[in-house]
Structure formats: structure tokens, C-alpha cells
Amino acid sequence: MPAQTKILFLVPYPLKHAPSQRFRVELYEPYLQQAGIAYKIVPFMDEHTWQVLYQKGSTIQKAWGIIKGYLRRLKTVLWDIHSYTHVFVHREAAPLGPPVFEWTIAKLWRKKLLYDFDDAIWIPNTSNENKLAAWLKACWKVKRICRWAYKVTPGNQYLCNYAAQYNNNVVLLPTCVDMERGHNKVKNHTAHKPVLGWTGSHSTLPYLDLIIPVIQELQQEMDISFAIIADKKPALPLNDWTFVAWNERTEIEDLLKMDIGIMPLQQDAWSEGKCGFKLIQYLSAGIPAIASPVGVNTIIIEDGINGYLCSDMATWKKRIKELAADVQLRQAMGTAGHEKMLKEYSIRSQKDKFLSLFT
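Request: output the structure for the sequence above.
Response:
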């Protein structure tokens, strides 16, 4: 690593809030520090804007927050950037409009631009609360930024295949967890009322609709509860379920209350771009997982070893019942999952690849 290496990270969200940013950028900070690399992480959005962004209304506050973000970015890209050798952009430098900042970084200032994404963000996917912004997101810019980038670091092979159409220097960088400092506790499976669980953000809550009928049937046949960890409470037609508001300080303890983790997905292009982070969280904690056989799920889950892949409702029901009834099976699958995460999806397993991006 050259002694003069200095990295500017341009990220969309305030620090310690958004999962993709936390686990693809922020968790590498200790290793950047150990390597003696100077760096700075600069969010586009401040915390107040993040809090109101996905609420209905608050139009003036949202607009002002976005304007402030653009002003901060303008200052960074026009004045502050010159002391940096590399610029690492996670998802996008700004949420709306054409890739002006990325073009300025790569073409005008000739900086080494690294472009990172963990979703199929070239596909329009705007929330119901922000439909008016859909046409401004300019999803076409993803391929342009890929072309301008020094390196592109997608989170799974499907995303890599897309990026490779526009860039010859594509590095697969899976989303990881820190199994030493954060996700460092492992589930001890014991005989008790089993808890089926799901964790995620409000944007992925609709996927639960795929599995709710199965859980309803199961709760009619056996004593099983359902737990959700999220940033927004859904309305679920279930008899026995709990909601836990996501909290960084308690996320590991909350996760360990689950006995089985689930990740239902639809079979579509957007789901193919998912990086399986729910599964990575479950398995790192020694919790066996059941998932739809979509995209990277088929790589993370080894069917029958650390969990199950289920393509129809009958199979979902069968596999949940099997795991719910067998403590030893849950323990064995959980152990296998934990070991796989240590080898392939922990920060330690990927840190050298991450640091090598800047050589």
C-alpha cells in the first residue's frame, strides 16, 4: 500500500444507520486504521433528513435536506477532494439526477474512482412514499459510472455480470459481518417454544406477504411464534408474533432470540441483485436459515447442511416444521452456517481483498 494513499468515501446515508453502508464501508474502518491509511467518510444525507425521508408528507423538510446534501457534495467534490488519491462511491454520490459528481471525480479531476453497489440499482425501485422522485433517480447512470470507474465492487455475481458489460476491472466483494467485534455471539439451541424470525428494512417487508399464509397454517398446527426485527412495524394477520424495532446496540441479542431465520424472495431481476445479507446475519449467529432459491441465496445456503431452499409453499411448511421440531438439527445446521460465514462472509475473510482495491 503506497504511503500516500488517502481515500474519500462518498456514502448516501448518515453513519451507523443503513445496513448496506454499515457492512460494506463502515465495518472496514478498523482495518483501514491498522493499515495506516488516511480516509474520510462523507455522507450525503444528514440524520434528520434520513428520519423523515420515508415518512409520508414532510415534503419541505425532505427537499431542504436534499438541497443541503447537494451543497455539501459540491463543496467536497470541488474543494476538498484534491488531497485524496482514491474516491470510493457507495451506490451513488447523490440520490437524484445525472452522475455529475462521479463524472467530475473521474474525468475532470482524474481521481481513481471505485464504484460499489449491492442491489440491482439500475432497475427503478422507488417507494410508494416517494413516487414523485422516481423519474429523477436516473437509474441509467449506473452503467455510466461503471464505465468511468477505476474498479467496480458489486456484492454478488449477478451484479458483477452487469458491471462487466461496462468495466474490465470488476471485483466481487460480498457483504460481510464483523464476527469479532459485532456479530460475535452464537446461538445455543435449546428445547423451548421455537421462534421463527425475519430481519430487514421497511423496503423488504413486502416479501413477508409470500410466507404469511404458511405461518398462519403452522400456528394452527403447532406452538410456534414469529419475530420481526425492522425499522417499521408491519400489520400482520398472525396470532403469535412480536415486533422489535431495530437498534444497533441490541441487534445481536435481538437476533439470537430467533431459532430459525427466513428470507422469502420473488423470482425477478431485482431479487437476483440481492446480496443475501439476512442469511449472512442468521448464519453468522449460528441460526439455520430457510430461503427462496433466488440469486445468491443458492450460494449462501447449502441445502440440507446450513439450511433449506424452498421453491413452493408446501416445502416451506415442511422445512419449517422439521427445524422447529428438532433442536439437534437446528444446532448442527447453525454450526455449519457459522463456520461458512467465518470462511467466506466475515470481514476478516475479505479484508485483504478490500485493502487491495486501493493498491
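The chain is about 40% helix and 15% strand.
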